[in-house]
Amino acid sequence: MSESSAGAHRSPVDDDRWEPFPEFVMPRVEPRVVVKADLLPAVTILSTAGLLGIPLGWLWSLMAPAEHVRIITAVGDRAPLELESWHRFDDLGIYTVMSIGVGLLIGAVVWLLRERRGPVALIAAAAGSTLASWLGMQIGSAFATAHYKLDSSPALGAVIAQAPVLESSWVLVAAPMATALVYLLLASWNSHDDLGRRLG
Asked: Domain limits at 92?
């Protein structure tokens, strides 16, 4: 038998040139944004976060300094004492810092809800922070007015303490910005495609 005929009848098993097995790759499922399943928890997040406005306003009414004014007319017109008008800025600054703290707290706590992580929870947390800040303004102003309520009409020339006020509504953006910032920072540090929802 010739070498050509022997090579023609050679079994593939005898061939020393093995072809490598194809590499097995696990199919990758792209995570999708869950909306419907997160709507009800989002409402819970929004309402619960909004309730933080009550202690926020109460604490602000205790911490914010009053503005001392002098009664200058018989009808009760008031004029602030020297440097006392700066307390209006102090009132706004204190509330802004407290709102940022509340926003950071809301963002961190909502992030711990692993099974609900995603844009829906983020939007609900930011909306809840805004609600808490707005409610805190209303509650805080009401508490402050009650703290410095006058029992009788002050006499001409008397110096009285005037309740602290929040004169700018721009303070409402502090809490949701802090919430979104801490939530997005935590999401950027997460190594899971679905932010770890499957591990919840």
From this structure: 34-67+88-151+165-191
